[in-house]
Amino acid sequence: MNTTTQELLPLPEHLRFASEPAASAGAVIQGECYRFTVLTPALIRMEYSPKGGFEDRATQMVMNRKFPVPDFRVTDLGNRLEIMTDRLQLTYDKAPFSRHGLSVKVRNESGHLLSAWHYGDEVQDLGGTARTLDNADGAIPLEPGLLSLAGYTVIDDSRSLLLEADGTVQQREQDGLDLYLFGYGHEYLKCLKDFYRLCGSTPLLPRYALGNWWSRYYRYSEEEYMSLIERFGQERVPFSVAVMDMDWHLVDIDPKYGSGWTGYTWNRELFPDPQRFLTWLHGRGLRVTLNVHPADGVRAFEEPYLAIAAELGMDPEQGEAVEFDITDPQFLQAYFKFLHHPLEEEGVDFWWIDWQQGGMTKVPGLDPLWMLNHYHYLDSGRRGKRRLTFSRYAGLGSHRYPVGFSGDTIITWESLDFQPYFTATASNSGYGWWSHDIGGHMGGYLDDELALRWVQFGVFSPLLRLHSSASPFNSKEPWRFNRIAGEAMKDSLRLRHRLLPYLYTMNRYASREGLPLVQPMYYHHAEQREAYGVPNQYYFGTELIACPITQPVHSKTGVAEFKAWLPEGLWTDFFSGRVYDGGRRLSLYRTLEQIPVLAKAGAIVPMADLSGYTSAVDNPQQLEVRVVAGADGQFQLWEDAGDTAEDLDGNWCVTGMALAWGQAGQSAVFTIQPAQGNIAVVPERRSWKLVFMGCAETEVTVQAGGGAAVAAETKYNEASHTLTVTVPELEVTEELTVTLTTARVAVNRVEEEVFALLNHAQIRFDHKEQIYRLVKENAGPAAALAALASLELEPALYGAICEIVTARL
């Protein structure tokens, strides 16, 4: 390879990551061999170098150390140094870091001592995430995260490589230690926010990424793939991303070239006119990603071989493979120029970087996966669209390169049961955008119920991407399953697209505010022990709690159990409308068609009204807004064009919504404020379907603008406690006010719900009659449950009845 031209080929500007790696001088306390940088009152950098060399460049993890200088006090006692903030007290003996010489006391937000760290202590954190779920059949070990019950954690950045201003990556020249102590107590979200400031924010995803992705490791032809997409349209099942696994390129190659995993040449037997095929997909609203395994470089059979070999100073006549070397700047630029950019010109929107590279490069310590993620993400912005890549996790800082591909799981209940916990806990590493193989990838067994539950979880996970192996018996089209499971799958996939307005607002919060879409319960209830005991339960955005069911239904009751904990307050089931009192642990039971998703009182959830079917992910003209009774609430619906290159304030349109619930018996008022900001990105007029959940029936008045009455259709559903107010199209700049004459939370229909449960239970008829009679005859939950206890019912049946009877205490 001609190395002399490397100096003449600096990396282009778009392959350089913006950073501010040098800290403010006022935050630094430095000695001959040590340096401490007080970044915040709870975050301190601790460096030790025997040669006195310290690093101010960006690293693979850290991008920005330019924090406002916080208040702190330094006391130098000669042979001992003390640094004090209102949260940390660091003591250091000015010698090489040791357990007896370096310690930090951590105080909580109230100023009380929470714990103490000594150098070398092993931190018992709350877990982070993992590189991959490849071959996982249940739980796997997790890498450390940023949060702990002890109130601190320490991240070692000593071996991280350096990012130069010119975009290249370099080894550290100095040996030493480079540690970051996060001492935020139980202020978990504050810790995450400062981590994002230190390491770079989570980028804003393009809107289409939040819709459904179709993916399968399968040798599709153009005709088969097009037919499949048309069938989805006929079934009214929307998709926004088409994923082409590795068979898009040549895989059956002469063994002298090696394996067929790496490839950049279309298989024209399957896709005779790739650009025509990609244009067809785009015409149906789909974005396209192709799978690549770059490990084997470029072999002589590839269409781009002659051009890239010549570019790199090789003799193409020799047929020598162009070696994959991501550390070589010349190869890096040729890699994009000849292998990826031409395919992008044909219509490829972003790349799925699959994993065959191993963990070694010519630069010791440099992980090729990290470098591929870094440069592919940067290069994806070359065409003026929002940056996006699809690859595996490569350590802390990987949140800068969304989205994550979690790998090839085994199709079992054990795999599904691990994924909600795995997804929520990944937020402890700042990694909020995992994309799982929904339904599992390979092995395992066919279980229609398992497949359905996985899709239901997928709706309430960061990304929903159906995927499976090449087995002719293993695919995720809903019509391949039994009728009940198939129809419920379709409904779930439609729901995901209906949730896009809510999801996209949470996308902005993740990027702007450091709030991951999926958050463990302890983020908001850190001092409540119960919040740590529900690993599969999590907040899904600001308004909802998701409890994905990961166990089979009980054969006799037809319901499956989720052991939940509800925080204080009122909670309403997002699907059934049942109202619950919080502040307790309880088991939730659901049939195949639903999982428990609970909305807090006062929650406001904007959705797309897809009653007129569309697979488009644009800002909708018909909006449905779920409004949950019982408390005041506010929500801001954020919208932009969905795929702008930069996330600028001027891109956004915001529509404020507010519920003033008022006192019991008084009126409640829900207001949709005029759209503000860049209203060019939303339709000029919108219709509104306002669904008030968990409320009693009442009269309604609707007004627009300055108080003009609006003719609206109202309908009350007694079974689900929902009052639906349908408002015809109005200008988005008009204010809309809906007044409920009497604000009352609905009373659960206990007898009717128990009857419905018993009606489907596979038990003796006389037993059903006896249970139902006891529920009707005993006033109050305690009396009913005491009477039922004497029957010695099966636990699942008794638990399901308990849930209904005691939902309101």
Description:
With 809 residues, this protein is an alpha+beta fold. Helices cover 21% and strands 24% of the residues. It contains 14 helices and 41 strands. An eight-stranded parallel sheet has the order 18-17-16-15-14-21-20-19. Strands 32, 33, 34, 35, 37, 38 and 41 form a seven-stranded antiparallel sheet that branches. Strands 22-23-24-29-26-27 form a six-stranded antiparallel sheet, covered by helices on one side. Helix 13 (781-789) runs antiparallel to helix 14. The longest helix is centred in the middle third of the chain and has 18 residues, at 329-346.
Helix content: 10-25%
Return residue spans where pLDDT drops below 50 for at least 5 consecutive residues: 1-8
Calculate the terminal CA-CA distance, rounded to whole Å: 76 Å
Taken as a percent bin, the fraction of beta residues is 15-25%
Strand order of the largest sheet: 18-17-16-15-14-21-20-19
C-alpha Rg, in Å?
29 Å
3D shape? globular
**Number of strand elements:** 41
What's the rounded overall pLDDT mean? Answer: 95
The biggest sheet amounts to: 8 strands, parallel
> How many helices?
14
Alpha-beta content class: alpha+beta
Key structural traits:
alpha+beta, 809 residues
Brief synopsis:
The chain is globular. It is built from 14 helices and 41 strands.
In terms of topology, how is this protein built?
Elements: E1 28-30, E2 34-40, E3 43-48, E4 58-59, E5 73-76, E6 81-84, E7 88-92, E8 102-107, E9 113-118, E10 153-156, E11 162-163, E12 169-170, E13 177-182, H1 188-199, E14 212-214, H2 222-234, E15 241-244, H3 274-283, E16 287-292, H4 305-311, H5 329-346, E17 350-353, H6 368-379, E18 390-391, E19 404-405, H7 413-426, E20 434-438, H8 448-459, E21 463-466, H9 483-498, H10 500-512, E22 518-520, E23 538-540, E24 544-546, E25 560-566, E26 570-573, E27 579-581, E28 584-590, E29 597-600, E30 604-608, E31 622-628, E32 633-639, E33 653-660, E34 668-672, E35 676-677, E36 685-693, E37 700-704, E38 708-709, E39 713-717, E40 722-731, E41 736-740, H11 750-760, H12 765-777, H13 781-789, H14 795-806
Parallel strand pairs: 14-15, 14-21, 15-16, 16-17, 17-18, 19-20, 20-21, 31-36
Antiparallel strand pairs: 1-2, 2-3, 3-13, 4-11, 5-6, 6-7, 7-8, 8-9, 10-13, 11-12, 22-23, 23-24, 24-29, 25-28, 26-27, 26-29, 30-31, 32-33, 33-34, 33-35, 34-41, 36-40, 37-38, 37-41, 39-40
